[in-house]
């Protein structure tokens, strides 16, 4: 079969090669493609490629390859040597950044300026950051009490969602490898391509066979992977519902788990906030990646006396957002990742309107094919509305009001989630007080959606447990505590 070459925007010189079919990446090689299913470009619904569905037998092969690599070369390698591989991977990601950015945008639907400026560089940054840790774990107390060296768990099963396919892979794979674990990773069904390109990077970096295995498939594949008896640790990012089912299924098995789940962040704006900056932060907080972000600022809590003025400013700003071709470098809002996700967003917005909220969207012409949703403001939202409590995971901002800082905290914390929050005010003492009161893993002040590999990320309550990034993120990948 011939390869199909996708030339992106005319002004772009880079070309990414998409194979017609992909096998699984097990033990350093790609298998013969089997049980093929398509992955589409959500911007126009064309089939980009067909990838293999891994059933229990293939999952077992992936786990066996990871076990062999752990018991063999990788588990015995010094941290300094492991670090060299991570540095190499980081540099290759930088060198092939254009390819990754275009492929991510094709498979996911996100604007090229986001994959180019955020996803790919941040993924490379995670490998650089963790490369530096590989030979310093013992100095940071990442050892069990009484032990002299940091001890990895062994084989780690990693299951990731579709909203940041390469970045979530980096968040998972980099700390696992830095600490000496081996990996079997399952990307989401709708966005497998950058993980498969990453498999090529592992080959290019000369990573020993079986240290990273990439198994494509759907929820059944993920289930078979986390249930496999030879898996020592599970790292999952996705919905609270699936996170719960994983926690139940591994209970009592001795497997460790970290779960990064959903969110319903409050972005809280006081009347003394720097308003232009706040408008940009609110817009970026909810429309970045079409709002398909677990830490998205999806609930705007605005101080009542500036509600009307702020909403007016937001409307004006929203009319300037460019919605459309994700490969156009001027696009601000791209496609929704799948029809299922589009239906979920539409359904929740309809429910919000039925419950009494007012919806407003700027005029814009949406492409004729593909999955699209206009940036939407919902005003008149009350705390009990579904659009104020459930994660919409789309370009939809629910606006609520408050009068006092105490009321803002009470409303912000009135959620089953606890992943992130934002505070906009000129008053430093208020920022500190709010950060202390807010039950959220990350609190941004006068900014939003800022990520750095050195900063731990994770939630409370139904947003899951465990942290990714920083020293805290490494803890999840080594044995700590007494007697280990
Ligand atoms: P999802 O359905 O939970 O899927 C996440 C991953 O789990 C996918 O790879 C999925 O496979 C797989 N999966 C599905 N059922 C499974 C099972 N029973 N056992 C093991 N794996 C299974 O989530 P989604 O709807 O695709 O993604 C959106 C959700 O992820 C949102 O709720 C969002 O908040 C959350 N999220 C959280 C973070 C964070 O860092 N906290 C980051 C991003 C997203 P398929 O590909 O077949 O679905
Ligand atoms: Mg899914």
N-to-C span? 52 Å
Radius of gyration: 22 Å
Quaternary = single chain
**Strand order within the widest beta sheet:** 15-16-17-14-13-18-19
Point out poorly predicted stretches: 1-8
Count of runs of 4 or more consecutive helical residues: 15
Q: Tell me the number of strands.
A: 20
Q: Helicity level, as a percent range?
A: 25-40%
Helix-strand makeup class: alpha/beta
Question: Overall mean pLDDT score?
Answer: 94
What fraction strand? 15-25%
Largest sheet, strands/sense/barrel = 7 strands, mixed
Q: What is the overall silhouette?
A: globular
Bound molecules: NADP nicotinamide-adenine-dinucleotide phosphate, magnesium ion
Structure description:
This protein has 484 residues and is α/β, with parallel strands linked by helices. 39% of the residues lie in helices and 16% in strands. The protein has helices at 56-76, 79-95, 97-108, 112-133, 165-178, 193-204, 219-227, 240-250, 275-287, 307-318, 339-354, 386-389, 405-413, 428-437, 470-475; strands at 4-6, 16-18, 21-22, 25-26, 29-30, 37-40, 47-51, 155-159, 182-186, 212-214, 233-237, 256-260, 266-269, 299-303, 358-360, 376-379, 396-402, 420-424, 442-445, 464-465. Helix 3 packs across helix 4, helix 4 packs parallel to helix 5 and helix 9 (275-287) crosses helix 10. The radius of gyration is 22 Å and the shape is globular. It starts with a strand and ends in a 9-residue tail after the last helix. 54% of the residues are buried. NADP nicotinamide-adenine-dinucleotide phosphate (NAP) binds at residues 159-163, 186, 188-189, 218-219, 222-223, 226, 237-239, 242, 245-246, 260-263, 294, 391, 393, 419.
């Amino acid at each position: 079969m011939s390869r199909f070459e996708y030339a992106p925007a005319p002004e772009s010189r880079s070309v990414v090669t998409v194979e017609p079919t992909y096998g699984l990446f097990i033990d350093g090689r790609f298998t013969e493609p089997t049980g093929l299913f398509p992955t589409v470009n959500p911007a126009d619904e064309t089939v980009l490629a067909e990838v293999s569905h891994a059933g229990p037998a293939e999952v077992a092969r992936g786990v066996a390859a990871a076990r062999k690599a752990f018991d063999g070369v990788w588990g015995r390698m010094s941290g300094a040597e492991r670090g060299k591989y991570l540095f190499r991977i980081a540099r290759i990601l930088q060198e092939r950044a254009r390819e990754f950015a275009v492929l991510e945008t094709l498979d996911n639907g996100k604007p090229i300026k986001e994959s180019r400026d955020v996803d790919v560089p941040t993924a490379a940054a995670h490998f650089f950051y963790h490369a530096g840790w590989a030979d310093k774990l013992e100095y940071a107390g990442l050892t069990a009490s009484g032990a002299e060296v940091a001890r990895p768990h062994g084989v780690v099963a990693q299951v990731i969602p579709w909203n940041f396919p390469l970045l979530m892979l980096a968040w998972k794979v980099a700390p696992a490898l830095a600490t000496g674990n081996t990996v079997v990773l399952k990307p989401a069904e709708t966005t497998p391509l950058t993980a498969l390109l990453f498999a090529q990077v592992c080959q290019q970096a000369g990573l020993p066979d079986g240290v990273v295995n990439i198994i494509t498939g759907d929820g059944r594949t993920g289930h078979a992977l986390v249930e496999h008896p030879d898996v020592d640790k599970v790292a999952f990012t996705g919905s609270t519902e699936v996170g719960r089912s994983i926690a139940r299924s591994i209970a009592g098995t001795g497997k460790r788990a970290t779960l990064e789940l959903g969110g319903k962040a409050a972005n809280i704006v006081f009347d003394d906030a720097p308003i232009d900056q706040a408008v940009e932060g609110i817009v970026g907080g909810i429309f970045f990646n079409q709002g398909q972000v677990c830490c998205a600022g999806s609930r705007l809590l605005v101080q009542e006396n500036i509600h009307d003025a702020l909403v007016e400013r937001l409307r004006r700003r929203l009319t300037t957002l460019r919605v459309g071709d994700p490969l156009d470098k001027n696009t601000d809002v791209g496609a929704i990742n799948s029809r299922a996700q589009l239906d979920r967003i539409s359904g929740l917005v309809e429910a919000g309107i039925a419950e009494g909220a007012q919806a407003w969207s700027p005029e814009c012409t949406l492409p004729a094919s593909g999955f699209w949703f206009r940036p939407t403001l919902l005003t008149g939202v009350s705390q009990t509305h579904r659009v104020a409590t459930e994660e919409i995971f789309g370009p939809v901002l629910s606006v609520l009001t408050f009068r006092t800082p105490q009321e803002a905290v009470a409303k912000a914390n009135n959620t089953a989630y606890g992943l992130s929050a934002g505070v906009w005010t000129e008053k430093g003492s208020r920022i500190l007080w709010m950060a202390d009161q807010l039950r959220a893993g990350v609190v941004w002040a006068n900014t939003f959606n800022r990520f750095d590999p050195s900063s731990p990320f994770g939630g409370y309550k139904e947003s899951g447990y465990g942290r990714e990034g920083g020293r805290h993120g490494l803890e999840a990948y080594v044995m700590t505590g007494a007697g280990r």
